[in-house]
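MODEL INPUT / OUTPUT PAIR
PAIR INDEX: 1
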Amino acid sequence: MTKVQIPAVRAHLLRGVSKRWLQTASSFLAAGIIWELTARFLVKSPIFFVPLGEIALKAVSMWQSGALQNDMLVSAIEFASGFGLATLVGILVGVGLAASNAARRFFEPWMSMLYATPIIALGPLFILALGIGVASKIVIIFLTAVFPIIINTVAGLTTTDRHLVEAARSFGATPQQIQLKVRIPSALPFIIAGLRLGVARALVGVVVAEMFGARAGLGFLILTSAQNFDTAALFVGVLILAIAGVVFVESLKWLETRLAPWREEDNEA
């Protein structure tokens, strides 16, 4: 690709990203209007469904009191620690398992079993073992997020086009060069997909972890609001987590366009 073509490709990718963000914003605007009209004219029960306007006023009130910032900060620290650790361990373990058929055959049944295990059922055990502090929350979030990352990393690295590998070998590439220049770039879409799944599960893990012995956090906010029938505050916590999920997933999509721009070109085609 020439130097003249590179800026044109970047501009094309930026236009594609801007268009996708505009479409996403439009869908949220439409959903917000439907939500508001439904809550005000169809489901007139503040216990079950609250208009977005009232939720926004509740969020402002909680922000002014400082309670919302504290809950968001606690959940953010737990999420960043748990998901960051899951990302690091998931990718490294996935690379290791992809490199060894014997290790993969030995560990895959265990991963499938742990992936299917409902972590919410084990939450009290982690609280008993690690206490009600941050450590137990991080472990729960880590366990909910790590397995999709491992599974997708292994799938991406083991399904690399063998013709690409053979072509690299024919040019004298070392195993390390094949791994870094061929297998990992080819597996990037799978790894990003695993991270996107991991983000969703980690956000669920935040709520699950904070429902057992927490003193603060968005999951704790949701639990206490439900117990007090404060539906507006409950939706504040739910919507913050939902928005965080959208932001993280869209950020990972953007990262994929930067690391694997050919994928965006294929999608446009």
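PAIR INDEX: 2
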Amino acid sequence: MSRRGLVALLALAFTACSDASAEVEAVATPSDPAPRTIPTTDRYAEFRAVLARHQAMSDRVSRISRRLRVANAPLCDVTRLDVGLSTHQLTDYPPSIRPLALHFMDISENGRFIRSIVPGSPADRARLRRGEEVISGWPVQSETPLVIDDGNGAAAIRISADQACVAPAFVINADAPNASTDGREIELSTALVLQVGDDSALALIIAHEMAHVLRGHSAEDGLRWNAELQADADALTLMRNAGYDIDGTVAAWEAGVEAHRDSQAMSATHPPLEIRLRNLESALAALKSGPSGFRPLAD
């Protein structure tokens, strides 16, 4: 999950769980000596479950996003070495939230720690785990090993990193299904991730937003039909390069047109579903009739 999304979740828990009717305990940290209230044991369990569900969604989105970003790195103007992990430290969080971060996030008062591991990534294959301390070597550089302390002492670990597009996708806590990009990062709401159960269908959504990033579409462009149709077509190319089943994805999209007709009817930013479907079918046909192997985005 993004740091912004995590902070929002922790802040929500702090607000919801420290009301006057609940028993609370006071916690202070050296960097924030004023005691802060945090939830009692039963509230701990409740919020831990919420956090675990959010983390599972984040892991899924990160896995799909990374697959697309690594496979399509040759198409991106900006790339970075990626081993499939993220890190954090206590000072990343506002002082009022730090007691919750300490309690829930496998983090200590000092040091930098692994926050998440993308399943199937080089970091996962190297058996790195959430909560291990990163002593040095972060951010990843090609010739510098990561020095990790897993609780049994520090050890240097060399991991073969991948080049990946800089267009990561994150999950934010929101009740309305939505995906968007600011031109750098992609955000998907928790409601959307829960609603889209098939990974290929979710990959289409992420790839669509990723196409906006690669094309340099602005927020104003996002209000124009041609930008949305171009992003739909590009998404199939990005998915194909990453090994997703684009035939099945378009077929499933066609099957879902009727179910989503009402939600799209009032859209001011996207073309009608029938137009988008015809555009996807045309893009699919062009990809299938073209050469095999890696494909660039169409002119």
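PAIR 2 NOTE: Residues 16-31 have pLDDT under 50 and may be disordered.
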